[in-house]
Specification:
By secondary structure, the chain is mainly alpha-helical. It has helices spanning about 5-20, 30-40, 60-65; strands at about 50, 55.
C-alpha cells in the first residue's frame, strides 16, 4: 500500500532480480485489494510470488525455491 513498503516484498524482489528474473511487481494499493487478493489465493499474508503462473509463496518460500537457507523461527541463527 502507498503508506507501507513491505521489507519482505523488497527482499523477494531483490532475490528474484539477483537470480535473473524479470518481475511484474503488482502493488496492492488498498485494504480492499489486499483482502481480495488474500481471499482469491487463499493466503494469509502478502507479498506472494508467482513464477510461471504457479504460486511460490512468501519471501521464505522464494528463498527455498532458489535453494537458499531459511531461518528457523525458533532458532537464533540461520540453518545451513
Amino acid at each position: 500500500m502507498p503508506e507501507h513498503v513491505c521489507p519482505f516484498g523488497l527482499k523477494a524482489l531483490h532475490l528474484l532480480h539477483s537470480q535473473g528474473y524479470q518481475v511484474d511487481d503488482r502493488w496492492l494499493e488498498t485494504r480492499e485489494q489486499t483482502d481480495a487478493f488474500k481471499a482469491a489465493h487463499d493466503v494469509k499474508t502478502t507479498p506472494q510470488t508467482f513464477v510461471g503462473g504457479e504460486r511460490i509463496g512468501g519471501y521464505d518460500d522464494v528463498r527455498r525455491f532458489f535453494g537458499k537457507p531459511v531461518r528457523d523461527p525458533g532458532a537464533t541463527a540461520i540453518a545451513r
